[in-house]
Design a protein that fits this description.
Strand order of the largest sheet: 4-3-5-6
Number of helices: 52
Distance between the termini: 104 Å
Structural class: mainly alpha
Number of strands: 16
Helix content: 55-70%
Strand content: 5-15%
Radius of gyration: 41 Å
Length: about 1150
């Protein structure tokens, strides 16, 4: 029984009107109240309305179908009737005057002609035969109306599309006659017309065509492009069709063999304008594939190359637009076939996909055209064309921006040729109009003048920009004028970077007496391109303010500065098009694919280059680089430490989600927006997108860290040292679970396994791997064998036992002192050059250390001497072992820095620069400088300087782009190997023009390429102990101080305050020192600084004080009584920084004994 409001207990019938069956057998079957009558009525009425609407739509659709079919059938019937009339007309005998038949036949032909039907093609031939019989036709256009001629021209194009090139001659000749007399006739089908011609060329390439047909095709290409003043719009449309329907074809072999024949019939300026106009309307560009656009670009270059006369700035603008859109594809595909053909791991797997669609390799002809853009002739022609377009000084900024934009895109397309492009542009002069006529200005100075006169530069260089970063943020937003100015600034920075690399210190700021009329052209060019002190200060202020904002306020900039845009260079503005967002790319300064990170990179590189030069040879005030007013320095250290902790946490989260994000990233770039890109270009864009996201996140989490990593010189050195020590302390706390002290850490390891009574196997294993027995005289090899497998585990405390020749342990307990002795012994042994060392490092004339550049060559020669080849397992094992030696030595040095142990080793400045650069990018990013070569090879440096200053013809010296490396073999025989500096270097002679590039390549080979494997392995080991980002906070001289201590004068009072005493020398309750101790400090004050350093080295093994004073010395400087025998000399335990001083009663005796001890080197022992 079911109670209801109606009083009825009968269950109502459940009717399902949805048309769906209940497929769930376990669904509840309980009764539910029925729908009310009003709701049911409404639902039924709605259903009936929908049914009636469907019926009406079906009826209307049927009517439309019938109407269309009736129309089609009617037209077909009428066409058939027209064909019968046409056949009947041509079935009659031919009169003497066939003009009447032609007049009647053309309307019929226009109506019924179907190019697919062979009979209609035959009927067309009959009509053309009549036209040919009329001597005055088709020149007599009065036979038909203009509209009829237009329709007939379009009919001919349709007919030709269905004919092979071999049978096209009669139709094509008539069509050309019509076009000559009425150009507008072909405009409605102009794209189809040029597509047809490109197909005929392709057929001719495969099957061959006669000379007459070839001439006809050439004429067919150029006739629609002939100038008609009254039809200027038609001409522009014809040129666009010529470019995008004809030049985009890959089968134009005739044009590729002889572009002059077509180029001389063209107005190349109008061609450039048509390309520019088309690029302002994205839909036309999107209809072409990347390959077609690449062929268009290549044919465009070839046509302009064949015409020596300048086409004005329009040519440059058209090139700029085409390269901008193709930049990713050109860079990936060009480098794949270029000299730097080293496939990336990420793209190697995609090569098969690219090869499948033919996009992997560029045609040799396309390569030739692209190479023209970057070779000497191409750059010279570029400057010639550019100079000829400058009409007044008022347009300098606009013209400079155009050249800058084109050159920047060129650098992005051809990164392997970036040095060649910069060199040729650097060597060029730009003629600018003036009051007294045109004057030739070096390109660097020209762009400096243009850049420094921009509104952007003037705003940023002002002091108020340092206090109001929002001003700079506003200047980074897209805008027509700002984009022009940023392009000019960007190219100046690129060129000035190149200038700094090829400029030595003497030419950077030459004294007045050094400037002479006898200097070589190369030296004169460098000096004339340099900046004065006033200009340098202005440039550095600009770079500091700009770079600081780009690092510290990046989150304010990136969302707006890198939004999707479409380029319109005709109006020179960037316009946002929401409907085209999916096909857009990021843009900055109007350069597609560039963002503010690119600006930040070149700005930082220039600034650091100027800073390194100033730190090497000071030309600015000491505090000029500081920007401490931007921070609250009282809380700066704690704020940076907090950011470091947040960054570590972010890095851990990133590692957990790395695999997911990489998969998602790959899928993102397979969307519709990028499906037309090659796979390599998609991966390139994916990397760029992930880099942007990473930089944005870093700027949000650690803006101060980013400043310290990239602009450390704006913070005082002492503050950075404190931050460095804090970072290490935090790392120790994190790795050792809070137990920073070595003994406490060991106790925690044992306690975790059950204590000393019952230690776990894991605890024993950990402590065992951090303990070693080491033989004196074989410290490095034993340490390598015992500790290499630890990796970054070397950061944890280690326990060392020295053993003698009988494998008996030496007396002493390692409370930290033996570890110091162990580490300093390794460095003494491993860094020792010559036969006593391991030949891993060598020294220059100033006894500065750097990796042995010939170490791998020497090892290879030894292996060859013993009969091994490069494919032998033994060969590979030896090479890998040598690499591991460098890596382990890097770890050892990092361990010394990690434990604040100073070592008495001095490294070459160029080698220390690589330490600093390792925190900013891969080793490849280190840019070798000519001045750095002075530390490596003074003779080679002087030889290159002489070459740079050589006044005669360098080609007479018979130099080429190769270099010789010399190394010793197993029998001390000197071997010489000649290596190319670039592709086909042995075929390229060194000339007056390319000698700066030769000097740059030689410098790069000696400083980067030759010692690459050694340096990379060493830095890998060093980076596993000391975070490379921490090293990037210091320059080369600061890193040397960090490793070996402060080179300033020894502060005796600071040393006295931080000295500990033991034995009888312990200070009593009265606070008075022992008389011997008082005499010792009196003697130390009387010593010269060099003698104080000898004492310090005698006790601590290094002659320099810690950077933050002797309070940072670990272990502390200590003095213990050494007995009453005044004949004994003072002795030391360098492992514990302990001086054992006998109780002398006379100051003179103490002074003489101490001097004798430190000068003779006696007294070193291990307590």
């Amino acid at each position: 029984m079911y109670p209801t409001f109606t009083g009825s207990s009968r269950r109502p019938r459940n009717v399902n009107l949805s048309g769906q069956r209940n497929t769930n057998p376990w669904a509840t079957s309980s009764w539910t109240p029925s729908t009310s009558g009003a709701s049911k009525t409404v639902a039924q009425a709605q259903a009936e309305r929908e049914k009636r609407q469907r019926e009406r739509e079906e009826l209307n659709a049927a009517k439309r179908l019938q109407r269309v079919w009736r129309g089609h059938r009617g037209r077909q019937s009428f066409r058939q009737a027209c064909r019968k009339r046409y056949d009947a007309l041509y079935g009659q005998p031919i009169d003497h005057d066939s003009s009447r038949r032609v007049t009647v036949a053309l309307p019929l032909l226009l109506f019924f002609f179907d190019p697919v039907q062979a009979d209609d093609q035959r009927r067309l031939e009959l009509f053309l035969r009549d036209l040919a019989s009329l001597k005055s036709a088709p020149s007599n256009f009065e036979l038909f109306s203009s509209n009829s001629w237009d329709q007939f021209a379009q009919l001919l194009v349709s007919a030709l599309e269905r004919r092979p090139a071999s049978s096209s001659q009669p139709l094509l000749s008539v069509l050309l006659d019509i076009i000559r007399r009425r150009q507008a006739a072909i405009i409605p089908v102009i794209s189809r017309y040029y597509k047809l011609l490109s197909q005929y060329y392709a057929q001719g390439k495969r099957l061959g065509i006669s000379v007459e047909q070839q001439e006809t095709l050439t004429e067919a290409v150029t006739v629609p492009l002939e100038p008609h003043p009254e039809q200027a719009l038609s001409v522009l449309q014809a040129y666009q069709a010529f470019a995008f329907s004809y030049l985009s074809s890959s089968d134009l072999s005739f044009l590729q063999r002889n572009p002059v024949q077509i180029a001389r019939c063209l107005d190349l300026r109008v061609l450039s304008e048509s390309v520019i106009d088309a690029y302002s309307r994205p839909k036309q560009i999107d209809s072409l594939s990347k390959n077609e656009l690449l062929w268009l670009l290549s044919h465009f270059i070839a046509l302009n190359r064949s015409t020596p006369t300048s086409q004005g700035s329009k040519y440059l603008e058209a090139l700029y637009l085409q390269l901008s859109l193709l930049v990713d594809d050109i860079r990936v595909r060009y480098d794949r076939q270029g000299p730097q053909n080293e496939a990336n791991d990420d793209t190697a797997s995609e090569n098969s996909d690219d090869e499948a669609d033919g996009s992997a390799l560029l045609s040799p002809w396309v390569l030739d055209q692209l190479n023209f853009l970057v070779d000497e002739d191409g750059i010279s022609e570029l400057l010639t064309r550019f100079t000829s377009t400058i009409s007044s000084s008022d347009r300098l900024s606009e013209e400079a921006s155009l050249l800058a934009g084109y050159t920047l895109v060129l650098l992005r397309c051809f990164p392997s040729h970036s040095d060649d492009i910069k060199l040729r542009l650097f060597q060029g002069d730009i003629s600018t109009p003036g009051s007294s006529g045109s004057a030739a200005t070096p390109s660097v100075k020209y762009f400096w003048k243009a850049a420094s006169n921009t509104e952007v530069f003037r705003e940023i260089v002002q002091p108020k920009a340092q206090q109001q970063p929002s001003l700079i943020v506003a200047l980074l937003q897209p805008g027509s004028t700002r984009d022009q100015e940023w392009r000019t600034i960007l190219l100046f920075l690129e060129l000035y970077n190149f200038l700094l690399r090829v400029t030595d210190d003497e030419d950077f700021l030459p004294a007045e007496n050094q400037i002479s009329s006898e200097q070589s052209p190369a030296t004169a060019r460098i000096r004339s391109s340099g900046l004065s002190i006033r200009e340098l200060k202005q440039l550095i202020d600009f770079l500091k303010n700009l770079s600081f904002t780009l690092y510290y306020h990046l989150p304010m900039i990136m969302p707006s500065a890198s939004r999707p845009v479409r380029m319109s260079l005709v109006s020179r503005k960037a316009s946002v098009e929401e409907e085209e967002t999916k096909a857009s790319q990021t843009s900055f300064a109007g350069i597609i694919g560039m963002d503010v990170l690119s600006l930040r990179g070149v700005s930082t590189t220039t600034m650091r280059s100027l800073y390194e030069r100033d730190s090497r040879r000071r030309y600015l005030p000491i505090d000029f680089w500081l920007m401490t007013s931007k921070f609250d320095m009282n809380g700066f250290i704690s704020a940076v430490v907090l950011e470091e902790q947040q960054k570590d946490q972010m890095d851990e989260e990133d590692e957990d989600s790395d695999s997911e994000s990489s998969v998602d990233g790959r899928q993102t770039f397979r969307s519709f927006a990028t499906q037309r890109l090659s796979r390599a270009a998609q991966i390139e864009q994916g990397r760029r997108s992930r880099r942007v996201q990473r930089e944005q996140l870093l700027a949000q989490v650690g803006p101060k860290l980013e400043i310290l990593r990239n602009m450390p010189f704006i913070i005082p050195f002492e503050t950075r040292v404190q931050i460095f020590r804090q970072f290490i302390y935090l790392d120790k706390v994190k790795r050792r679970s809070g137990h920073v002290d070595a003994d406490r850490w060991r106790l925690s390891v044992v306690a975790a396994g059950g204590g000393f009574d019952d230690p776990s196997p894991r605890g024993r294993d950990i402590l065992g791997r951090h303990s070693a027995r080491v033989r004196r005289g074989n410290v490095f090899r034993d340490a390598y064998n015992e500790f290499y497998t630890l990796g970054e585990g070397l950061k944890e405390p280690i326990q060392i036992t020295f053993v003698d020749q009988f494998d008996q342990p030496e007396a002493g307990i390692d409370g930290g002192g033996v570890t110091k002795e162990f580490l300093t012994s390794i460095t003494d042994e491993a860094f020792s050059p010559g036969p006593d060392g391991h030949n891993l490092f060598v020294t220059n004339s100033q006894n500065l250390l750097y990796p042995n550049p010939t170490a791998f060559d020497e090892l290879a020669e030894v292996l060859r001497h013993h009969g091994f080849s490069e494919n032998d397992v033994k060969w590979k094992e030896c090479m890998v072992d040598l690499t591991k030696n460098y890596e382990f030595l890097g770890r050892v040095l990092g361990k010394c820095m990690y434990e604040s142990i100073l070592i008495d080793k001095a490294f070459a400045g160029f080698f220390l620069l690589k330490w600093s650069a390792s925190g900013q990018g891969p080793l490849n990013d280190y840019r070798a400088n000519l001045n750095d070569l002075r530390d490596l090879d003074p003779e080679l440096y002087q030889g290159l300087i002489n070459l740079k200053n050589y006044p005669g013809q360098v080609v007479d010296l018979s130099l080429d782009f190769t270099t010789t490396d010399q190394f010793k073999g197993p029998s001390d025989q000197v071997h010489t190997v000649t290596r190319p500096l670039c592709k086909n270097g042995d075929e390229i002679a060194v000339t007056n023009t390319n000698r700066p590039l030769y000097i740059s390549y030689v410098t790069n080979h000696r400083l980067v390429a030759q010692p690459f494997r050694q340096t990379r392995a060493f830095l890998k080991g060093l980076g596993s102990i000391i975070n490379p980002a921490w090293l990037s906070m210091f320059n080369q001289s600061e890193l040397q101080r960090l490793v070996g201590g402060d080179s300033s004068e020894i502060d005796v009072e600071d040393l006295r305050r931080n000295t500990e005493y033991s034995g009888l020398y312990v200070i009593g309750d009265d606070g008075r020192e022992h008389s011997t101790i008082e005499m010792f400090w009196q003697v130390m004050r009387e010593f010269r600084d060099s003698e104080r350093r000898e004492v310090l080295k005698y006790v601590t093994s290094t002659p320099r004080a810690p950077l933050l004073g002797f309070s940072q010395l670990s272990p502390r400087f200590s003095i213990r009584d050494g007995g009453t025998d005044e004949e004994r000399l003072p002795s030391t335990s360098t492992c514990t920084n302990l001086l054992k001083l006998p109780r002398y009663t006379s100051k003179q005796t103490l002074k003489s004994k101490l001097l004798y001890a430190i000068q003779s080197g006696a007294g070193f022992d291990l307590s």
